[in-house]
Amino acid sequence: MRPEPFALERWMTTWETQTPYDIAESGIFPMSMRELLELEPPAEREATLARLLDIRLGYSEARGTLDLRTALAATYRETSPDEILVTTGAIEANCLLFNALLQPGDHVVAVHPAYQQLYSLPRAIGCEVSLWKLRAENGFRYDLEELERLVTPRTRLIVLNSPHNPTGALLSADDLVRVHRLATSVGARVLSDEAYRWLDIPGGEPLAPPMRDLGGIGISVGTLSKPFGLPGLRVGWIAGPAELVAACWGIRDYVTLSPGKLSDALAILAVKHRDKIVARTHAIVRANMAAARAWFSEHSDLVSWTPPRGGLLALMGYTLNMPSLDLSNRLAEQYGVMLAPGSAFGVEHHLRIGIGQEPATFAEGLRRTAVCLKDLRNQGTDVRKKTA
Q1: Do residues 168 and 289 touch, judged by C-beta distance below 8 A?
Q2: Which of 38, 299, 310, 326 could pair covalently with 163 via S-S, beta carbons 3.0-4.6 A apart?
């Protein structure tokens, strides 16, 4: 398997340690170890810290500890610990699933734009991939009728992502049922990348339940990175039928073997206190959504967006006639701001913005972005028709 270059990750790696105002980040502002420990009741903190300090840093249970798998299984309906595999982030979970489920020549339908892995890896395996496209002209909404036209009796897998990276689109509970029925009718499976589970917009639409809760052919992939602000733990998971989970475990024996033992212990603590973490997330999102709405309104001659309906991400259109990669590089190099190029997602003249950053940093990143766009316009850069 030889996948094509991962455009977004290569670009992020170039700038993420050099730019102080990262407003392209796809997850919520990371928690510190201290913040995570302070979620424990005061009377229990000392004992919890002592327990963590006494962990022997040997190999952990290969599929994730029973305690962690039990805690994760409890977040789904009718799911046992044996139907959970803990992985090195959602990215490993997806990779294992593609390799367990697909053969060269299989037909796959994958959402687009998307995190590139979701369609590039099936292509690398040798699958025929049809793209289920979200378009700016309809506000980046899922078109279920288009999906029905793309699915054929040859389709082996439908790949979803909701809330969606990079547009913030949502599939409703009824939409998921419709997708599940469609896949069942042709003997396909559904892989639902739920990296943004628990990331509803305060006061917005409720999130649909995970695909795993529909049972049968539904598979859910989860992670602590985006909704919990814990990407450094590198903890993700698969929730699916036991035989599929076992097949993925068998492949993982050749890759990362097992999760990190300390990460597993900290993940148990995070899942235990997920309600408190969600409250922290909501506070950050609420502040940044208010700042973003005001900023887009103030600078409507330069930029526009479709606000996220869920998750943390949106695509912002801009009026300057400049390729998105050139604009992203200029913002990073000269203004200290990270906004990911839309070209990394196949959507030109857009930038990906994330609303999960620490609010003061987010506000300053927006301010600097406006300065950059005005500077370019004043320097004579052509102006395009405003896009959504």
Answers
A1: no
A2: 310
